[in-house]
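For the sake of transparency, this paper describes our internal protein records without simplification. The record that follows is passed on verbatim for readers who wish to inspect the format:
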Amino acid sequence: MHEIHRVTVQDNPMEVFIFAPEGQGPFPGIVLAQHIPVGHTGVENDVFTLKTAARYAENGYVVAVPFIFHWWPKESDIQIKRDEFRDDWTAEDLKATFDYLAALENVDSERIGIVGHCWGGRVAWLGACHNSSYKACVMFYGGRIKNRMGPGTPPAIELAGNITCPVAGFFGNEDQNPSPKDVEDLDAVLTAAGVKHVFHCYDGAGHGFQSFANEQRYHPEASEDAWVKVLAFLGETLR
């Protein structure tokens, strides 16, 4: 079960979906950045993100999923949202979500991480670059990190030196966005910045290998191995 809360970002209301374990806590928290499924109109229609958030909650985390596409009408074409996406807006969305999650009575504000898949993987990276309060960052096959998104914003890869928490990355070796070369570049900038990180790369897996709702992309063996590893990583960094 989850609850829908709302926060305001630049006078614009944003839905935040909250998933919580049973009990009073305080529990560690996760900001979960969603991907963009085809026909995406909101978190409530994103089965993958909802079930992923629920699984983290079942493992003892309070999870906040912000609807970071609130800047556009839900019925707007997804390509418009892709083309007009702005990192400065997104950084504000993530700050509002973090602050809301940290203020919940059942959350330990000193133990919050950020996780994301696909587009959300890039968003998770961005969040860690803009908020030194995160204690962990996990990105699943986040593409376009080398890209500039929004006027006056640098490519997200150039912000690696701002990251202060450990990073875990999960990638498919058959993926082209990010490609294996992109993954090497991410590894290189994190290493140069002195950011503790661990990357897991899976042969035979492509982009979206955890997307159980997409038969063409889902790679169950890689997905379940990644679940074991990500829960171990979060256990080490947030518990």
